[in-house]
Amino acid sequence: MRPSDRVDGARLLARLMDLARFGAREDGGVDRQALTAGEILARAELVRWGRELGLRPYTDAAANLFLRLDGAEPSLPPILTGSHIDSQPTGGKFDGAYGVIAALETVQAIRDAGLQPRRSIEVVAWTNEEGSRFSPGMTGSDLFTGTRQLTIIESDADAAGVRLGDALAGVLGADVDIPHRPFQFEVAAFVEAHIEQGPLLERAGIPVGVVTGIQGTRRYRVRVHGEPAHAGTADRAERKDALMAAVRMIAAIDTAASSPADTKLTVGLFEIKPNAPSVVPADALFSIDLRHPDNAVVDRLDTEIRKIVERERGPCTVELKQIQHSPSLTFDSAVRATIARCAQVLGFPHQDIHSAAGHDARQLHYVCPTGMIFVPCRDGISHNPAEWSEPDDLTAGTRVLADTVWTLASEA
Amino acid sequence: MRPSDRVDGARLLARLMDLARFGAREDGGVDRQALTAGEILARAELVRWGRELGLRPYTDAAANLFLRLDGAEPSLPPILTGSHIDSQPTGGKFDGAYGVIAALETVQAIRDAGLQPRRSIEVVAWTNEEGSRFSPGMTGSDLFTGTRQLTIIESDADAAGVRLGDALAGVLGADVDIPHRPFQFEVAAFVEAHIEQGPLLERAGIPVGVVTGIQGTRRYRVRVHGEPAHAGTADRAERKDALMAAVRMIAAIDTAASSPADTKLTVGLFEIKPNAPSVVPADALFSIDLRHPDNAVVDRLDTEIRKIVERERGPCTVELKQIQHSPSLTFDSAVRATIARCAQVLGFPHQDIHSAAGHDARQLHYVCPTGMIFVPCRDGISHNPAEWSEPDDLTAGTRVLADTVWTLASEA
């Protein structure tokens, strides 16, 4: 009897659809941004499901949620498996949620198979992976792994001015009987299942991706300061138009990033003040998200971006702040081999695949052996209400996850 | 005894500074957008000042405020004089407010001189000239003159979703004993005093500008529709990036409008959705404000703008909507001559000047003889907290206004 024998695809899908009710959008998507009411209710539902399975819930100062199945040797560092349940404002039902529900199904399958692992296994939901409300994301895994410190970021505010520290206090204050644990407890391994968010597996007709690593990312905020002026009277030569300066910068950066063709450049956030049709904009703020698997490409564009913002600012002033720099990384070879072997034994076609997106697994990679399992998603679409994965693929990925986690939890 | 003899510059300035308390910004500017609490309180203060002077207040369905001094022949159409008291979010103390306070000072000077005009004189404050909250502006003068219909625009909403009709109902409901009048009652003439919002009078050292007309304006809203996608995974070739399309459009339109050099092009409003750093923008909305004294220039750029948005949309779709088209106009020659003659008699240097900005006088021009008086403002700065005019210039403009209004009210 292997845990994968007891993975129930229908139950997995039912839980995914159940979770998607929290923060449901009218267009079928999900808007369940971190620490909002929708996410708070979804987190409480996870606790309820975990308790029904006999798992003990824990949390920490980042509101990360852990659901623990005790192993035969409970003093050993546990295996963690999971992802996140927060979404983008225009998110779908699978990004993040799949990894958490697949982890819960994994633990249930192990229990239903009448097996007890040597090491304890914990289902985890990391807080604010997406970073759409409190930016940047990966808050829970960053704090857990010590990449960032709560005392430094607790004053960060969302667009409405709510502080991260207050939002966390609100969520933690509503918890009933969930003990707290410190950050950075020892972890034996972390495995995260996720939809690919790209088209490669679907095109290849392969249900399981063994993730080799994560491409490098740099994220910036650019603030342009000009001066407000009257749209009808201020002469072009006398304006300090923050919007026009920002437009010139973005157009030039887009051109610079057009080669190599697999460079990912996104300006996803753009705000101006006073944002009134008859006033020359005094301030502009925009984000830059730059990614490429080759660190040298990202580093070259970093240099170009810094030159461009100075060159195009005109009479305005500009501040460029890099808020994240995550080099490309390669996951632990033993974990990758275990995933591939479990897929092989189950007879699922599988292939190595590089992750273009960032994941909580990035942070865990620096503190314990870490791996990821990808499943195909339709047309590669993600961060979009149309996000979809076929139930057979979701089940295949979960079966591989179950055997992988069981194997890791059984090893010496 | 002429009314200008009794214009009190200190009282004028004191009332301007008093009014600037409503919606005061910490930086010394004013944020008193239409139908907000700040404007409601400022309007109530005007009513109080008017009643102290024995003027009778009236309003209408647009919440325009009229303060009436009865003439010897009260059945004759009145002379209207005033401007507006709403401001831009980053506005100053003078734009609009000066014309209303100068009108109040005019009426007080006439009364203090012991004079009674033949025609009634009404101080007027038109609602929502600026259009920063409910766009486009000129709402009060548009509705009064029949340019727009309340039944058509009452459902227009501000950024927070508040309907114009509800905002008006809130203001009118709080009025105490202010009778309503219909729109489009007959008006004998309208005179509006205003700061220049440009640098010409100050540079020439001339305190009084006789406004010859208003330059042509076209205003647009452009909506670009793309598709949300994941910043890390969606390939450049597969994206429908609404922000990048909008940036290309604005850069091209800016280039097209760079000649002739006195073309005024402003993109003052720019919003994207979902506005999240890790999501390729699905939608972009921006405003275009285009002005030039020569109608042919505005018309040529109108054609170019329509071509550019189609050419630069890439895989996105685009809707361009013209929300305003106001051709250049020339004010009534008799009113202009009266203003110039009054300035001449008072010994104030004066010159003809074209208005680059739109004003409520534009709408009144189509229903009655209309004119405007400009006074210099420092460095031509307006729509900016730093807006400033010298007290001597404010007084000079008001003295010319007082004699002009008196002359018009005395004519057959």
UniProtKB/TrEMBL annotation, chains A, B:
<feature type="binding site">
    <location>
        <position position="194"/>
    </location>
    <ligand>
        <name>Zn(2+) 1</name>
    </ligand>
</feature>
<dbReference type="InterPro" id="IPR036264">
    <property type="entry name" value="Bact_exopeptidase_dim_dom"/>
</dbReference>
<feature type="domain" description="Peptidase M20 dimerisation">
    <location>
        <begin position="213"/>
        <end position="312"/>
    </location>
</feature>
<feature type="binding site">
    <location>
        <position position="84"/>
    </location>
    <ligand>
        <name>Zn(2+) 1</name>
    </ligand>
</feature>
<keyword id="KW-0862">Zinc</keyword>
<dbReference type="InterPro" id="IPR011650">
    <property type="entry name" value="Peptidase_M20_dimer"/>
</dbReference>
<keyword id="KW-0378">Hydrolase</keyword>
<feature type="binding site">
    <location>
        <position position="95"/>
    </location>
    <ligand>
        <name>Zn(2+) 2</name>
    </ligand>
</feature>
<feature type="binding site">
    <location>
        <position position="130"/>
    </location>
    <ligand>
        <name>Zn(2+) 2</name>
    </ligand>
</feature>
<feature type="binding site">
    <location>
        <position position="383"/>
    </location>
    <ligand>
        <name>Zn(2+) 2</name>
    </ligand>
</feature>
<protein>
    <submittedName>
        <fullName>Zn-dependent hydrolase</fullName>
    </submittedName>
</protein>
<dbReference type="Pfam" id="PF07687">
    <property type="entry name" value="M20_dimer"/>
</dbReference>
<keyword id="KW-0479">Metal-binding</keyword>
<dbReference type="InterPro" id="IPR002933">
    <property type="entry name" value="Peptidase_M20"/>
</dbReference>
<dbReference type="GO" id="GO:0046872">
    <property type="term" value="F:metal ion binding"/>
</dbReference>
<comment type="similarity">
    <text>Belongs to the peptidase M20 family.</text>
</comment>
<dbReference type="Pfam" id="PF01546">
    <property type="entry name" value="Peptidase_M20"/>
</dbReference>
<feature type="binding site">
    <location>
        <position position="95"/>
    </location>
    <ligand>
        <name>Zn(2+) 1</name>
    </ligand>
</feature>
<dbReference type="InterPro" id="IPR010158">
    <property type="entry name" value="Amidase_Cbmase"/>
</dbReference>
<dbReference type="GO" id="GO:0016813">
    <property type="term" value="F:hydrolase activity, acting on carbon-nitrogen (but not peptide) bonds, in linear amidines"/>
</dbReference>
